[in-house]
Write a structure and sequence with these properties.
Blueprint lengths: L17 E7 L8 E7 L17 H14 L2 E7 L1 H7 L1 H15 L6 E5 L11 E4 L7 H22 L7 H4 L5 H10 L23
Parallel strand pairs: 1-4, 4-5
Antiparallel strand pairs: 1-2, 2-3
Protein name: Ribonuclease HII
GO molecular function: manganese ion binding; RNA binding; RNA-DNA hybrid ribonuclease activity
Pfam families: RNase_HII
Amino acid sequence: MSNKVYNLKAYYKSDTLEAGCDEAGRGCLAGPVFAAAVILPPDFENSHLTDSKKLTAKQRLAARTIIEENAISWAVAMVNNQEIDEINILNASFLAMHRALDQLKKAPEHILIDGHRFTPYKSIPHECIIKGDGLYLSIAAASVLAKTYRDEYMLKIHEQFPQYRWNKNKGYPTKDHREAIREHGITPFHRRSYNLFDRQQKIPFPE
């Protein structure tokens, strides 16, 4: 875990079974968007847990073990790139969160969402919190799970298409990823609704 100390809040509403939700992979050119939902015990404490982007890969995996061992309930779900192309990435992110919430062994009484928008889940009240993964432990925990499970997925599909270097860029629009697309075209895992090529280039998608 990180040596840096963070003091995130344990809950938004006291005496409430509260689930934190976050996603990973919205800005990627390839692969699914993943989301996680986590219900932590009200007395859960971890001063080294925060937004997954502030942690190293090793720290995230260490945090994941602690989260999975201590959470009241947790779940991870994904929406694939074809679904993203059909319903757009914002709706896909909401759908991934709904799918994660569906898998929780206990239904939450309140939901904390990282961000400023969300499609209501059943009749459960929710709160959208901008940069919530750096404010609340349950959202931070969800960010860690979503990120680590998505990274593992990208490592698996990297084996099929190593030229795109998804083991390094995880599908994000890095220079090497865009250059690989220009050289090799796209894969079944690329999001066709995204700007995969430089805007100046008019390269048709291979069928």
